[in-house]
Amino acid sequence: MEVITTKRFKKTVKLLRAFLFLSAIATTFFLCLLLVVIIIAKIQGPPSLFVPQSTIIYAEDEQKIGETTNQKRYWVPLDQISTDVINATIATEDRKFYQHHGFDIIRMGGAVIADLKAMAKVQGASTITQQYARNLFLSNEKTWVRKVKEAFYTVRLELNYEKDEILEGYLNTIYYGHGLYGIEAASLYYFNKHAHELTVAESALLAGIPKGPSYYSPETNFEKAKNRQERVLQSMYNEEFITKAQFEEALNEKIVLNGKTKQSNEMVAPYFQVQAIKQAADILNVDREKIDSLGLKIYTSLNLERQQIAEKYMKQIFADESTIQLGFLAMDPLTGKVEAMIGGRDYEESQFNRAIQAKRQPGSTIKPFLYYGGIKEGVTPVTPLRSEPTVFTYDDGRKKYQPSNYHDYYAYDDIDLMHAIALSDNIYAVKMHMFLGMDTLTNSVKEFGVQSPIKEVPSAALGTSPVTLIEMVNGYGHFANGGKEIEPVFVTKIEDTNGQLLYEFNPITNQKLDPKTTFVTTHLMTGMFDSQLNDYTKVTGSGIADLLTHQYAGKSGSTQTDSWMIGFSQNLVAGVWTGYDDPKEIESSEETQYAKKMWAYFMEEALKEDPPKEAPIPDGVVGVMVNVENGLLATEACPVSRLTYFIEGTEPENYCKEHLFDQLPTETQQLNENKERSWLDLIPFWP
């Protein structure tokens, strides 16, 4: 019996030695493996913590107007997150976060035992670091390979980052339901406040969501969210993050969800936002698609009030049953900042931006560029040309061109430039074009920043070469600012996700055009609203002149398929194009007036509290009163006279004598039959 017992003892000792030996080997292997993992993790260095974040777009007043993805992802530093959120998260997700090195062994063991007892997965043991690793680098598939990768990334995170950095990353990437990633996105969505403004009750409510975002969302199921909040608050109290009084106060606090959580799909100024993102991509020299996930803050030039004014009048003026389209653009001519833009009547229906992408014939809106070139060459506001049906030959006589005036109205007499631009006389424009040389218009248009090519043909004077609305509005902006160079600006500032300045617009405008010629041409463009210049037909702005309370300069234009109106004050320039996408002829007389009406209503309301400034008269420009009927210097006897500006030395030298005799008293008239009297006596300002 004793022998058997001894044998058993020896066998037990032998097994124990074998077990200890194997355990030592296994432990050594495990320690070596752990050492290898640590060495590899150290060699590979810190993993990138970059996660896609929504790029946010702001208006001129820094009001948020949009973001680039359907997922809401914002990154905020840990010191801008409420301490209550941090405590609630730690109490709920990982109580020993600051004590362990990535893995909570005791908790993992407890979870295994609980799972074995229940014969099912009933308890999780992932630490905050493990969850962060999973959020950053892994899918949600439940495989051993994924588990091993998760452990490896957990080690890399713990070895290379401080605890606060890991916690900050976790709080900025965890999912809170409804496409919300990170505490800032969740806080804004559910409570319309920033993460640092959350109360204890709100913090506990949000901290409970990640366990089951679709189940514990207060928007989806408020009762379940409240029950979960109570358990989070209890955990905070147990961990001594809050007092008993705070626990009870938070438990009884009324939760008020943001009434705007069910957000509208309607974008603010969608055409503008798309163009701003494109410009930002060009500025940073990155792909357009990459902008969406860089977490940038893009500050734009959009004036929300003026954008709303434009959209309001589009809806009021354009008939619902009409399928005619429009492009609209308004900008600050002093800086080039685009303040409002509409690319079409319905962005959801068509993302084609007619203010920027559509090339259409500008009609008579091209003429001011032609006349600018003419004035540079010595043409004056009173230079006469005959208005009558004319056949023009060109290309060494091999080709003919016969334009016509609107409704075939002609003066059948000489008219001057101030009438030609106000009445939009086509014969005058083509004659001037041919007289100056067809390259004059081509070169002039380029000076005003229009990049679209203008053909050197007679019809180019009437706007037959297609251009974009943005080019034309920018060109007219050069008139408005006295000839300074500008380009359309949508983006004024860009910051990265950490608030570092990447770009800031600095308006530097160089004098590009001759200021004297620019001023004279600009003043001529006020004539389209001046009934004093009515002649063989009415001025082209007569239909909207009564709507205007300020002095504006501008030009309308029309073709069979296009209707334009572009005009400006010194501090605002706006343009409207209307037409069909087909394109097809605009047959409705009502539709032909849409562009002018929208422009007039917009300008008046936009400048209601910001009245137009008077442009300073450049040196070398003189203003004189001219008799509009004959282009001579007017006297007090002339029934119709208009202040007209000339480059000094080109103004008329002779006074009108036509009406002097009519102004004399009857007695004087009788005396004049016997006595000659100088007409200069009737000019009160004659020295």
TrEMBL record:
Catalysis: reaction(s): Preferential cleavage: (Ac)2-L-Lys-D-Ala-|-D-Ala. Also transpeptidation of peptidyl-alanyl moieties that are N-acyl substituents of D-alanine; [GlcNAc-(1->4)-Mur2Ac(oyl-L-Ala-gamma-D-Glu-L-Lys-D-Ala-D-Ala)](n)-di-trans,octa-cis-undecaprenyl diphosphate + beta-D-GlcNAc-(1->4)-Mur2Ac(oyl-L-Ala-gamma-D-Glu-L-Lys-D-Ala-D-Ala)-di-trans,octa-cis-undecaprenyl diphosphate = [GlcNAc-(1->4)-Mur2Ac(oyl-L-Ala-gamma-D-Glu-L-Lys-D-Ala-D-Ala)](n+1)-di-trans,octa-cis-undecaprenyl diphosphate + di-trans,octa-cis-undecaprenyl diphosphate + H(+)
InterPro entries: Beta-lactam/transpept-like, Glyco_trans_51, Glycosyltr_51/Transpeptidase, Lysozyme-like_dom_sf, PBP_transglycosylase, PCN-bd_Tpept
Transmembrane segments: 20-41
Domain Glycosyl transferase family: 63-236
Species per Swiss-Prot/TrEMBL record: Bacillus carboniphilus
Major place of residence: membrane
Record-linked Gene3D superfamilies: Biosynthetic peptidoglycan transglycosylase-like, DD-peptidase/beta-lactamase superfamily
PANTHER family the UniProt entry points to: BINDING PROTEIN TRANSPEPTIDASE, PUTATIVE-RELATED (PTHR32282), PENICILLIN-BINDING PROTEIN 1B (PTHR32282:SF11)
Protein name per its UniProtKB record: PBP1A family penicillin-binding protein
Residues covered by the Penicillin-binding protein transpeptidase domain: 328-568
A Pfam family reported for this protein in Swiss-Prot or TrEMBL: Transgly
